[in-house]
């Protein structure tokens, strides 16, 4: 990323090659439209090129996944023709993250940790991330009490983090 | 003061996932911003939540080879062409240049890409790098040909705008420009859509032109229910609402 900050096109291209299947995959899953997913992928990578310092530290894949999700939410809002969304794209919070331990996590270990979650925890987490819907809608769709949905999301994220910490432990 | 019971910490987790309704998210975030314990909980779970996106990553080969090459060509072309934009006021957008300049350039690009595709195809076996270039050229040709077909399709509607046209074709919206001035340094163009009955525009994609000012873009939004298209100059990455006076606003009627 340091080379991208120095406007190194080759470095940017290497990052594109490494992450375009992640970005496009998220866009396609959320938008269910190949052309729209291509446009979104282009927008995400051009945003990366124009403002590479937006990525501060931590796991780059996780960061660009969140950027992609937020962009996809914008498109979904536009499709719904709603002036105001019920779901914020993100809630930025100032502060520092001490997450360098996760910086080197590879995609395979992340997918394995996600797959290891019990379905009752993984499903609401994936619905919340990819579905662009609130926990109330998750509760309605899964016919699960709202409080249970929230508890399962927290437990699932805790378990996911614990598994990833274990996988990167020296 | 908001307590730190399990119910509230559950809300912090849903905030980290990004699935709290806006009003509740604002309230929980306000507390998290000032509470060290909740902030730590949020940061830890947010890191985990961000990684959920990996569930959607396509495996190598899952993305169609031609589509992948076309997409990469689009991105890299934008990166290379936007390396050093010069400032030209949007007000200087010329309304006099005809749209056929765009289509002529587009058709020429298709023809050139055909030639490039044919010649590069012979080099694919030589090196991986050359093969990648050939795929990019072929994908480029496919994109250009598809957009040209959309532009000249029977029933397509053309609306004149400064330096080009807005085209409604097959339920899609294309913007075609010739001699589009470069966006001011550090800025890009951004398209906006106005739905019928809406009072505010919605953001669409950002774009730039090649050094000759020629570009044809397709908006991700469907043409259905759109009343107007606008373009303004915005910061890289685009804006959620226009931050500059529109270069043009074109009603689709």
Can you tell me about this structure?
- The complex is a heterodimer of chains A (170) and B (253).
- By secondary structure, chain A is mainly α.
- Chain A has eight helices and no strands.
- Chain A is globular.
- The model of chain A is unreliable at 81-89 and 91-98 (pLDDT under 50).
- With 253 residues, chain B is α+β, with helices and mostly antiparallel strands.
- Helix content of chain B is 40%, strand content 21%.
- Chain B is built from six helices and eight strands.
- Chain B has helices at residues 6-17, 22-32, 36-50, 65-81, 100-121, 128-152; strands spanning 157-161, 164-169, 172-177, 188-195, 202-207, 215-222, 226-234, 248-251.
- In chain B, helix 1 packs across helix 2 (22-32), helix 1 crosses helix 3 (36-50) and helix 4 (65-81) crosses helix 6.
- The longest helix of chain B is centred in the middle third of the chain and has 25 residues, at 128-152.
- The radius of gyration of chain B is 23 Å and the shape is globular.
- The model of chain B is unreliable at 83-99 (pLDDT under 50).
- At the A-B interface, helix 2, helix 3, helix 4, helix 5 and helix 6 of A face helix 1, helix 2, helix 3, helix 4 and strand 4 of B.
Major beta sheet summary of chain B? 4 strands, antiparallel
**Count of DSSP-assigned helices of chain A:** 8
Average per-residue pLDDT of chain B, rounded, comes to 77
Helices and strands of chain B: which structural class? alpha+beta
Head-to-tail CA distance between termini of chain A:
25 Å
- Gyration radius of chain A (Cα, Å) is 17 Å
Q: Helix/strand/pairing class of chain A, anyone?
A: mainly alpha
Number of helices of chain B: 6
Number of strands of chain A: 0
Please state the overall shape of chain B, judged from the principal axes of the Cα atoms: globular
**Alpha carbon gyration radius of chain B:** 23 Å
How would the global form of chain A be characterised?
globular
Determine the fraction of residues in helical runs of chain A and give it as a percent range: 55-70%
């Amino acid at each position: 990323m340091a080379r991208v900050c120095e406007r190194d096109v080759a470095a940017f291209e290497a990052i594109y090659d490494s992450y375009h299947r992640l970005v496009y995959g998220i866009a396609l899953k959320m938008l269910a439209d190949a052309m729209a997913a291509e446009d979104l992928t282009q927008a995400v990578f051009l945003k990366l090129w124009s403002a590479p310092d937006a990525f501060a530290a931590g796991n780059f894949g996780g960061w660009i996944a969140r950027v992609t999700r937020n962009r996809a939410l914008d498109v979904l809002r536009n499709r719904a023709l709603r002036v105001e969304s019920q779901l914020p794209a993100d809630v930025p919070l100032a502060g520092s993250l001490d997450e360098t331990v996760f910086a080197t996590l590879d995609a395979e270990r992340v997918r394995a940790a996600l797959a290891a979650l019990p379905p009752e925890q993984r499903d609401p987490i994936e619905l919340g991330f990819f579905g662009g819907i609130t926990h109330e809608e998750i509760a309605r769709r899964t016919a699960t009490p709202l409080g249970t949905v929230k508890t399962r999301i927290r437990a699932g994220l805790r378990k996911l983090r614990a598994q990833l910490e274990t996988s990167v432990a020296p | 003061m908001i307590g730190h019971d399990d119910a509230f910490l559950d809300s912090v987790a849903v905030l980290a996932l990004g699935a709290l309704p806006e009003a509740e998210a604002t309230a929980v975030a306000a507390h998290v911003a000032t509470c060290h314990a909740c902030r730590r909980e949020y940061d830890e779970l947010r890191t985990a939540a961000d990684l959920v996106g990996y569930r959607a990553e396509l495996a190598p080969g899952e993305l169609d080879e031609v589509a992948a090459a076309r997409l990469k060509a689009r991105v890299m072309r934008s990166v290379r062409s936007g390396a050093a934009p010069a400032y030209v006021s949007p007000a200087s957008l010329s309304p006099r240049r005809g749209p056929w300049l765009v289509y002529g350039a587009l058709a020429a690009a298709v023809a050139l890409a055909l030639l490039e595709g044919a010649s590069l195809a012979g080099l694919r076996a030589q090196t991986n790098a050359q093969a990648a270039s050939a795929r990019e050229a072929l994908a480029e040709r496919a994109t250009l040909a598809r957009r040209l077909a959309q532009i000249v399709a029977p029933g397509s509607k053309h609306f004149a705008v400064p330096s080009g046209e807005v085209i409604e074709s097959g339920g899609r919206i294309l913007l075609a420009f010739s001699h589009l001035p470069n966006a001011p340094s550090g800025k890009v163009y951004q398209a906006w859509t106005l739905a019928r009955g809406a009072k505010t525009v919605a953001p669409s994609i950002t774009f730039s032109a090649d050094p000759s000012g020629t570009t044809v873009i397709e908006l991700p939004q469907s043409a259905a229910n759109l009343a107007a298209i606008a373009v303004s100059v915005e910061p890289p990455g685009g804006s959620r609402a226009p931050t500059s006076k529109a270069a043009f606003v074109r009603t689709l009627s």
